[in-house]
């Protein structure tokens, strides 16, 4: 019985140590950097490359819940139809932790500098999953 307990604890420790790797952290931060650059270039479609291309994607904002990649992209295009409304985006990452081997959680702040239409800022939480070897946002709650 003792051997079984030790073996289970060993597996737990090994699995837990694989939950967070420097490469995974760098990959997620690189995606957020790329999204910032794409947004600031006025390219909403490229910005969306960080999101899961699935009908199961969820985006929670001040107007409610949006389900699906296409609907989320459509909402972005409607709310930010041009470069002036998009402005310049800056993310400040407040927390990045790995809940499991292929699950990450990010909390951050966004700032939009928009001289013509007024600045905007708020906070976000992102649930990430590593699917087919690629980190993607599966749920975004921004307010």
What's the layout of helices and strands?
Layout: H1 2-17, H2 22-40, H3 44-47, E1 58-61, E2 64-67, H4 69-79, H5 83-86, E3 88-100, E4 103-113, E5 120-131, E6 134-142
Describe it.
There is one protein chain. The protein is of the alpha+beta class and 143 residues long. It has helices spanning 2-17, 22-40, 44-47, 69-79, 83-86; strands spanning 58-61, 64-67, 88-100, 103-113, 120-131, 134-142. The chain has a single domain, classed as Roll (Nuclear Transport Factor 2, Chain: A). It is built from 5 helices and 6 strands, in the order αααββααββββ. The radius of gyration is 18 Å and the shape is globular. The relative contact order is 0.16.
| CATH-defined architecture | Roll
Number of strands: 6
Rg estimate, integer Å: 18 Å
In percent terms, what proportion of residues is strand? 35-45%
Count of helical regions: 5
How is the CATH topology named?
Nuclear Transport Factor 2, Chain: A
The CATH top-level class label:
Alpha Beta
Shape: globular
Main β sheet profile: 6 strands, mixed
Strand order of the largest sheet: 2-1-6-5-4-3
Summarize the helix and strand pattern as letters: HHHEEHHEEEE
Short description:
InterPro entries: DUF4440, NTF2-like_dom_sf. With 143 residues, the protein is an alpha+beta fold. Helices cover 38% and strands 37% of the residues.
What keyword list fits this structure?
143 residues; alpha+beta; Nuclear Transport Factor 2, Chain: A; 5 helices; 38% helix; globular
